[in-house]
């Protein structure tokens, strides 16, 4: 099992599944969610409409349609409510870890080999980037010890700050 970094747009990746940092309705939005829906085409929204939304920390899977990725795993990250350095007050850390674990579990259930994550919750939802990255890497490392089908987990960093943070964490 390999954990690696990629810089840039997650919609361009040829992997079995890309993860979407979605909202509870699963009906599209801005940021990476908007980019994924644009690149996948309107059929993605049609399938999302049949899913009945998604709770924070949970995950649901759809096909990838026009994306190079075969599947999209939609997960809903927590909205940050704390102060930087003080932790969130509403279970944010546990919920963010659940996003990663539940997405990985869905990928295993479908016997996928590769999955790429964006930096969930660190855009519109305001989660401090360093704290979110530590949770992401830790959850994926723990999961990798019991992975069966998965061979590769990619952290897709869209901005330079996230890229630097993940580079540091993955070389530690
Ligand atoms: N590829 C990879 N990462 C990207 C891309 C891309 N094409 N575009 C943005 N990012 P955000 P959230 C990064 O705001 O904080 C949506 O409206 C971005 O730099 O997309 O979980 C949903 O519908 C950041 O590091 O997601 C929800 O309402 C990361 O993706 C809400 O935003 C996450 O930023 C979810 O907020």
Automatic annotation (TrEMBL):
Transmembrane regions listed in the UniProt entry: none
Pfam families: Macro (PF01661)
CDD domains on file: Macro_OAADPr_deacetylase (cd02908)
Residues annotated as domain Macro: 1-172
Gene Ontology molecular function: any one: deacetylase activity
Highest taxon listed in the record's lineage: Bacteria
Lineage: Bacteria, Pseudomonadati, Pseudomonadota, Gammaproteobacteria, Kangiellales
Xref: SUPFAM superfamilies: Macro domain-like
UniProt-recorded name of the protein: Appr-1-p processing domain protein
